[in-house]
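Chapter summary example.
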Amino acid sequence: MKEKLYTIGEVSKLVNISIKALRYYDKINLFKPAYVDPDTNYRYYKDSQLHLLDLIKSLKYIGTPLEEMKEVQGLQRDDFFAFLTEQEQIVREKIESLVEIEKIIVNAKKGLQRQMEYPSLGEAFILYEDELKILQTKAYGIDPKNILNASYSKLKKFAASTEGFRNNGYGVIFSYQPYKHIDEVNYQYLFTPVLTNKQISLLTSDTDVAIIPKGKYVCITFKSVSIDDYFLNLQKLIHYVEYHQLQVISDIYESLIYNHHSLIQKEEYLIEMRVRIKE
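The structure predicted for these 279 residues follows.
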């Protein structure tokens, strides 16, 4: 019995591959017609070869390059099994990467939602915080007068893949005490939140992973126009704690919060200070 032949248009409909793609597969010797009419140059395909298109579609679906598909077509069973095992690992790595990206987006949204719920700037308030994993490094000789430059120079490398979403990307830690003058404020650590596992893999000898614990915090958020303004808001935080006779059980955590990323607008950021209190 003579085997049925299909035109390129019929094959396109049967296997849901465009005519343009079938012509290209012919050109690169990936999938060639069984017969080409010498007079009309029309391509015809046999039933028995259509299963090869299933393999090509499957390989395309998992992201195999066209040139590599030619090699896969010639693999024996054991080699084909090894190939699929390798592709499985590639897919798993892509899934892990997408899960990390999803976490970054969720954290970015959480940070923005938190900012939208702030009370008036320059007023202390109570906030319940979730646990936050951070990367921290010693802040040698760093104080409120040079924190912007210092935070970028020492921690920028840890944010290379996520910096566009780092609304609270950099911060400092310093002791809680009744400060009387700005010169008494000396930062102990610089920190940046851990957003991906890749950041932890970049740890250097002078950097470690730490935790800002979940709990009840006294917070204050403000626009830092000057050093005097900065110190005024620090005193407001301390005064709130003392006035309400709260028991402080942590250092002060200070974060820089960027309000926008526009190149045409003047750079604007907020500073948030928070200190954990006993519940």
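To summarize the output: The radius of gyration is 30 Å.
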